[in-house]
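User: quick one, fold this
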Amino acid sequence: MEPSLLMCDSCKHVLKGYKIKHDKAACPLLQLSYCGICAKRGHFTIDCPDDAVLEFRVATYMEQLIPPSLIDAYKIKSQTPLTDRQESRVLHEPVLEVSRKAEAVRSILFAYNRPCKTNGKEAAEENEAQLEKLAHELKRKLVYKVDEQASKKKRTFKVKE
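Assistant:
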């Protein structure tokens, strides 16, 4: 049997290896889900059916996108409606930020079910190439984090006399 025939629509893409037939009422994924808006289990925050708080989740006025401190400072009282034609602009380029350590690179590749090698300098180079390929597929810029521990070490200089 195919996994999609065994599982409900809520979890067939997430719990691919789960082989117990169930419907939406008995879904283990939905039973573990929690909504931070209505404080109930059984659905995720993005799927909250509580329409009373919908106006706070989705901006309907341009002024809802401005921090409250600036609204108070500039005494903004207007409510400019957002239309469907106005696109929300991207404030920054999507980034995949990773430490240069081999363990960090392998863990990200493992999380995305990508092949990775474990030992050696050549394995690290191949893993980084796989990571660059993954970042390209995810349409994200790959940025390697600076090792904070190495930068915090005290550096001593010898003065020649």
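User: anything notable?
Assistant: DSSP finds seven helices and two strands in the chain.
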